[in-house]
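Re-running Phosphate-selective porin O and P to confirm reproducibility after the cluster update. Everything else is unchanged from the original entry.
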Amino acid sequence: MESICKFLIVSIALSFQYLPHLKAAEIDVEADLRLGADYRHIKKSGQLFFDTELKFKSERIHGVRAVIEAQAESDEREFEATETYLNYKVSETDRIYLGYRKSRLGIESYTPSKDRFFSKRSILSDKIEELAYVSLQPQIAWRKEQNGQRLRLAIGLPSSLDYNLQLGLVQQWGSWALGAWSIIQRDRQNYEEEAINGAMSINLNYTSEAHKLELELIAGIDPLATELRSVSSDGEVVFGGARLEYQRLIKGTAWAWSSRLAGLANDRFNSADRTYSMGAGLSWTQSKMLSYYLTGDLIGSVNPLDRDDISYLNSRAILEARVRF
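Result of re-run:
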């Protein structure tokens, strides 16, 4: 059975390109990035992963684009190609973007758009109950504004999943957000939770003299999205480990969800050296998922299901970055 499903790397294309100069010549940017994609099916596993490091200054920016396609066939179904891309470009407004897209897994294709994280809906029907749809587009955008610099991280998830799953995801996000932000006790912190179309919206805001940090979680008709913004007049913004882990155990209908921003050992906001890092506690289910990725041992740890009855699909995207300006 293990030999049935094989991943064939169709092509790996890397192209490096010099991009236009940043208008703000006094701004230097360094970025160390790690981006990966990983999904497994029981007894049929494969992995796509690559690491890249970008270091650039305003007078010369290196752009890198990597496309990895893989296709796996089994006696039951075919998995569509998975595409991972890392694309840096600078526009007239001095923006730097990073995007990640995971194409369909036998359900429905995803086409990114300028205005929305997801322009197509994912559908889970009885006919394809054994498959789970995962699509993620983390995006980093930096630009110089009149009141300083802005760093933006956005993560989207399809909202066309069933109501219970939507609610569960938002609750997971909410518990994560509250835990991650509980130690921030400076100036002002506001927490608001309200019902929107049967789901919840969670908004957390923090403001200091030189910084404004906002975390927003929305679910309902629109995709579930998270945004972390930092506005400062000078200094350094640090984050890492923006992570999405998504899993479905079919027979037990158990869902596991994990996400972290800046998975560091401690949480801190230091206005003296303008650094910010955030770590989030994991729930029991999330910790079991994490242990699976670390040890490969998932059976019997997340749900007390019989080994032979489990059919699951795991997808993982990792983004780690350090930005200095």
